[in-house]
Design brief:
Number of helices: 9
Shape: globular
Number of strands: 14
Strand content: 15-25%
Distance between the termini: 41 Å
CATH class of one domain: Alpha Beta
Helix content: 25-40%
CATH architecture of one domain: Alpha-Beta Complex
Length: 336
Amino acid sequence: MMKPLKKMGMICLLFIVSVVIATGCGPTKIKFFADAEDPLLEFTLMGNGKDKIAVIPITGFISDSPSEKFMNTQPGTVQELKAQLTLAENDYRVKAVLLKINSPGGTATASDIIYNELINFKKRTGKKVAAILMDVAASGGYYVALPSDVIVAHPTTITGSIGVVMFSLQLKKLMDKIGVEMQVSKSGENKDMGSPFREPSKVEKELLQQLTRQLGDRFQSLVKKHRNPDAKQAKQISTARIFSAKDAQNMGLVDHIGYINDAIGILQKIANIAQNSRIIMYRRVLFPNDNIYNTMAAQQVAVNPVSLINFSLPGHLGQLNDGFYYLWAPGWAGNQ
């Protein structure tokens, strides 16, 4: 007799095959899970007042590239944040935004775009923005919190890492071992600067370090603009070290230490709205018993039940291309 699990698997397989046969080879697209093509919907998590606070998550690796999964597509962080900010901007009942940040950072450009979008959102609407820092809000994860009117860190938050890092894969020694050589024709001396197929020259190392320093200086200048650290604090911050929540508060990087409800209460006060204001989130699917601790952000709409083996590289290795990052690499666990 066929075992129940095996029988169920066979039934699912036959169903999928029958749907494919029924639809033929045309352009029909079969969707089993919500993805980036589905609209964002508003869900109330708590409260019953007229005014609203929109909770917008910034989770995982910050990027402007969509993430292609086996059976769905997850939008990039920039796209998703812009879509949610637009909904919050066009709803006159949304009086404030709470950024729920759990990210070690990401690409320098994506982090900077989100920063700029938040600055412009505040200028256009006059709406207050607060940030609640979760497990990790480091490097680009802290960068995107800078426009906030108030920053609250959990007692266990890791933050800081205010600097830039460049990753460049080097294959020269491996190629020498296996006897492979890359032939390059170039129009300028530095045209293939950063190539993984040869050792960088001293001049190239200096040029790359200059670029890295410039991007790091931009980050630190924005911290000085928004957080106004004193000379001693600025010196500590410039080392790009990470901080505990308590140390970050001592450095002036966060305003308060507390929990999500504390951040909501502070935001209600500075936005001058009632305590019974509705706390909402924008998602693509309905979650039973939804609440503010639900980590399934709008872009995290499905877990692939078909693939039981994860073929991706561990940690950040599967996502990092050569380039500049506002990223605390040890904090990137590969979850998005």
